[in-house]
């Protein structure tokens, strides 16, 4: 049995987070907007091929309620909001761009700025237009050209007042799912972490570099990069070489590809222990989250340190870190442990620029609404938003920059 953590301030408060440190939360369009009908995921949710338990349908209806969501984040004390623009909305038909959708996302950027939130925009967060998937997706010969054209179309959205742009979210997971599909496994989520598809790995790296050049041409002041899913591979005694070999195609090759970027996004939730024969499950007595991951608040510190060891002097932003739980006291305890790790990394001299919790809202977690990551809870009947105690705690930390701890 675990003893619930209660978040309390330190006896002597200190403020390790520098001025300008990004402090906010993240979301993704398909997971919160609702009715993303022209996307590949919408098709998977309804054609039966993806074995997906629940369709996204209205999701959190944030397409219409984004103002309310931003109001809450600003009122809570956050300074930054990461959200994605949806390619399938902007280019629902190949070569045909929706001026209305481009204007919609520009209004979101302006709305964030009006509320004192820095908008951090992700150009691709897992979903693509159905027509792009039908052409062969990322491994199509035309993929770099088509994605670059889409990025150019996003110029009115990102050209002004957007300090950070992410080209592609978790490209390593895109390659993992492509490898899974090539082996004929249509289950979601994939069991374990299958070997990524090499062709897709090469393709998304090439697309990222092309898109980075386009973003810099739109506005050279934009900090452009991408985000990587960090699994926090921990070698058991004698398994160091196995761990390095396991990590390379699933993580490090994507970190290496970011060495010329303006920043790199760390996305971390738990750890993965590696033995001589590969991943070792967490023990039965380990506390688990609603995604069946080990409750491990220190993961983010390990992910930051490993990323820094690979990318060198590229600044780091934690773009996702969080916990799926129905017990908000455990969320607060997780956050306190994670924040301690952030502070330690800063004190070690790592160039860490910010922390964005996943997720601002309860959302559609790729097949299910059951895993509740949100700082803000959602009533799925009325869409009423209710900030949790953890949201107030984390937002207050953004205001005070005083480092809290967890006490038994």
Automatic annotation (TrEMBL):
KW Hydrolase (keyword) present? yes
Q: Gene3D superfamilies under this entry?
A: Glycosidases (3.20.20.80)
Task: Quote the Pfam families the UniProt record gives.
Answer: Glyco_hydro_1 (PF00232)
Which keywords describe this protein according to UniProt?
Glycosidase, Hydrolase
State the InterPro entries in the record. Answer: GH, Glyco_hydro_1
In the record, the note on similarity to other proteins reads: Belongs to the glycosyl hydrolase 1 family.
Q: By what name is this protein known?
A: Family 1 glycosylhydrolase
What is the organism of origin for this protein? Streptomyces albiaxialis
